[in-house]
Design brief:
The chain is α+β, with helices and mostly antiparallel strands and 115 residues long. The chain has one domain: Nuclear Transport Factor 2, Chain: A (Roll), CATH 3.10.450.50. 29% of the residues lie in helices and 51% in strands. Strands 2-1-6-5-4-3 form a 6-stranded mixed beta sheet. A hairpin with a 2-residue loop joins strand 3 and strand 4. The longest helix has 14 residues. It is globular.
Length: 115
């Protein structure tokens, strides 16, 4: 099985490149998302809600990735409208029986700092 950090990197890259079809492959159907401005349940609902933010992005900078078993944390900056917004994403991953890889059970995203 692939390591959770590698899977997070693939998901993260696909999501912020606007490749929602690939990003969807890494989400469990019942994924939950909690962020500073909104919460969503379900993979399709989550991806639909993120589309506007992804389109507004000028750049994404991954700063650090921490992996501990199936838990992954990414520190990253989103550059939107001339501002840098620092974020922390925490992912709880569980292996799927059918697919070799990891699907997200929960996505937590916290806005840390704006510049």
């Amino acid at each position: 099985m692939n390591n959770a950090g590698e899977i997070v990197e693939r998901y993260f890259t696909a999501l912020y490149a606007g490749d929602l079809e690939t990003a969807r492959q890494y989400l469990a159907d019942n994924v939950s998302f909690r962020g500073p401005a909104a919460s969503f349940s379900g993979a399709d609902t989550y991806l639909k809600a993120t589309q506007h933010a992804v389109r507004a992005l000028k750049r994404v900078d991954k700063r650090k990735v921490f992996v501990d078993g199936s838990d992954v944390c990414i520190l990253f900056d989103l550059h939107i409208d001339g501002r840098r917004i620092r974020h922390v994403g925490a992912f709880d991953c569980v292996p799927e029986d059918v697919v070799e890889g990891v699907h997200w059970r929960e996505v937590l995203l916290a806005e840390v700092h704006r510049h």
